[in-house]
Amino acid sequence: MSQILSPLQASRRPGPAARLGRPRLLIVGCGDVGTRCLRILSARMRIFAVTSQPARRAALREAGAVPLVADLDRPATLARLRGLADRVLDLAPPPAKGEDDPRTRALLAALRRAAWRRARSQAGKPVILPERNRPRAAFVYASTSGVYGDRGGARVAEFAAVRPQTGRARRRVAAERAVREFGRHGGWRASIVRIPGIYAEDRLPLARLTKRTPALAPQDDVYTSHIHADDLARTMIAALFRGRPQRVVHASDDTELRMADYFDLVADRRGLPRPPRISRHQAREVLEPTLLSFMSESRRLDNQRLKRELRLRLRYPTVSSFFDA
């Protein structure tokens, strides 16, 4: 396992025969983080990557995946996923509107016949394999720390009750409930990874800093949590192999920064001016609602399960350590 989580050395890609004999993994929503997972695991697993964009097939194939064109908004296109792999990483976002997540429900429905429920024909009737013969199927869902809502800067443990305050967060809560139900009754070990703000070399708020978008004054500022995209990919993989059934894990580093202090840190390290500070009252008048919603929730994520249960050592324990590296 430690080899899987460490950076892979450049090596010759296995031939077709070797690839066919490897464990199978399905990645749904193979964007930036999914591609990072793919690059770590492609030498050890046969990976199928779902995309709704046919133009992305070549890029996914080059990264080492077998591309599958399917659309979570069109359940009929997901039929081919059934029984394809007994390990699944779900990184797909929910719809932009509504209180539910039909995309996640459609995916779970397509996977309902898990690996351990291999249908064998006996007098024309499917047979469910007994418990002792069931292979270990794992499903990991990428959720958001936004499900907690505003906690006034308090530290939040993984077992804390959810209090979603936005439609986006409520859709994630609905998806989490569907995943847990799937794990309890579908024969899968289902894990949930709640994710805060993701950053990386190409995912820094440089455009915001360049535009001089204001940040909140110290008395109104909020605590935010962070995770580097590489460490998030490694967390998803660790949950795939070590996650406990129906368990929540926070993919968060050890950084304790208020939002504006994070912007100041990035600005200082990239030689840009620090953003101007304004009051919350002023922010309501000049900032767009989506941006303002992120400035309305303050919390700090506890990451003990990440360290103790997944036994993951973060490559970048803090945002500062990323810049130092």
In short:
By secondary structure, the protein is α/β, with parallel strands linked by helices. Helix content is 34%, strand content 17%.
The CATH architecture of the domain at 2-9 and 21-115 and 131-200 and 227-254 and 300-315 can be named as 3-Layer(aba) Sandwich
> Which fold does the CATH topology of the domain at 2-9 and 21-115 and 131-200 and 227-254 and 300-315 refer to?
Rossmann fold
Distance between the termini: 25 Å
> What is the helix fraction of residues, given as a range?
25-40%
CATH superfamily of the domain at 2-9 and 21-115 and 131-200 and 227-254 and 300-315: NAD(P)-binding Rossmann-like Domain
Query: How many β-strand runs?
Result: 15
Which percent range describes the beta-strand content?
15-25%
Radius of gyration equals: 21 Å
| Main β sheet profile | 7 strands, parallel
Q: How are the strands of the largest sheet arranged?
A: 3-2-1-4-5-7-12
The first-level CATH class name of the domain at 2-9 and 21-115 and 131-200 and 227-254 and 300-315: Alpha Beta
| Mean pLDDT level | 89
Shape: globular
Q: Class by helix and strand content?
A: alpha/beta
Q: What's the total helix number? A: 13
Encode the helix/strand succession as letters.
Answer: HHEHEHEEHEEHEEHEEEHEEHEHHEHH
Flag low-confidence runs: 6-12, 114-135
Explain what this protein looks like in three dimensions.
There is one protein chain. This protein has 325 residues and is α/β, with parallel strands linked by helices. It has a domain at 2-9 and 21-115 and 131-200 and 227-254 and 300-315: Rossmann fold (3-Layer(aba) Sandwich), CATH 3.40.50. The chain has helices spanning 2-5, 16-20, 32-41, 57-63, 102-111, 167-185, 206-210, 229-242, 259-269, 280-286, 289-294, 304-308, 319-324; strands spanning 24-28, 46-51, 65-69, 87-90, 138-144, 155-156, 189-195, 197-199, 215-216, 223-224, 226-228, 247-250, 257-258, 277-278, 300-301. The strands form five sheets. Strands 3-2-1-4-5-7-12 form a seven-stranded parallel sheet, sandwiched between helices. Strands 6-15 form a two-stranded parallel ribbon. Helix 4 links the parallel strand 2 (46-51) and strand 3 (65-69). 38% of the residues are buried.
